[in-house]
Amino acid sequence: MQRRDLLCAAAVSAGLPSALALAQPEPLLTRTIPSSGLVVPAVGLGTWQTFDVPISDLEALARRREVLERFFALGGRAIDSSPMYGYAEAVLGELMRGQDQRLIAMSKVWTGIASYGTTQMGRSYGLWRLPRLDVMLVHNLLAWRAHLKTLRDWQAQGRVGHIGISTSHGRAADEVRQILNAERIDVLQITYSPADRSAEPLIALAAERGVAVVINRPFDGGTLLERLRRVSLPGVARDLRCTSWAETVLKWELANPAVSCAIPATTNPEHVGQNLAALRGPLPDARQRAALLAAMQPAL
How confident is the model at residue 171 (pLDDT cuts 50, 70, 90)? Predict the structure, then answer.
C-alpha cells in the first residue's frame, strides 16, 4: 500500500474521517434541466447593463475579464445575454476565447419582426463565436409564436440545445401561463426575488410541466442589496454559513426546488465570489426560509 493509503486506513480504523474524504472539495449545488438532463450550477452570470461596454474600452474589458475568470474559477458555467444588452454579446465573444468548453451559453431573440428573427439569431451566434448555443429564448415574448417555430427547427438541426421564453418585471403573466400550458418548451426565464414573488405560481406551473426555471433580477436589479445594507444579517443566515446578504438572498431563492438557476449580474469580481458562495453549504428549510423573509422585511 502507498503511504497515503496506509494513513487513510489508520484514520478509518480509529474512527476518524478519511484523509481523502477530508480533502474532497464540497460539491456545488446543481440543478438539472428536465427535458435533457443537462446539469447546471444553480448560480450563473447575467450580463444586462454590466457587459454593455465598447470592445475598444480596454480598461472596462479587463474588468469584465476578471469577472469571468473569477466566475469560472469558482465553478460557474451558465452565462446569459441578449441582443437587447448592447455590446454584451460581442464582449463575451471577445473574452470567452478558450473558455467555451466550460460554458453554458444562453441568449435570446429580441425582435417583434418575425422574419428578422433568424438574422438576429445568426448575428448572436457570430458575436458569441459559437456554432451552437445551449439555450435560446424568445425575449419578452416578442413574436413568440413565429420565433418558437424557428427555434424548434433549429433545435431539430442541433443548432440550439434548449428553447423557451423570457419575461421580466412581472410582465405578461397570463400569456406566460398560456405558453406553459400549450407549448413544448425547455426553459422559462422570469423575474423572482424576495422583493418580487409574483412569479411563484408560474414557477410552480413550470415545474409541473417539466420546464426549467432561470430567474433574472434576483437582487431586484441590485436595489434589494442596497436596501439590505441597513439590515443586520440574521442568525439563521449564519446557521446556513452565509457571510453576505447576496449569498443569503440567493440561497432563499434556490431553496425553491423549481428554480434551476439564478443569474445575478455584476462588474465586481468580489461580488462574483459572494454570489457563487451560494452554491456551497445548506439551503434553508421552510422554517428558515420564512425566518429569512421576515428578517428582510424592512428592505422589501
Answer: confident
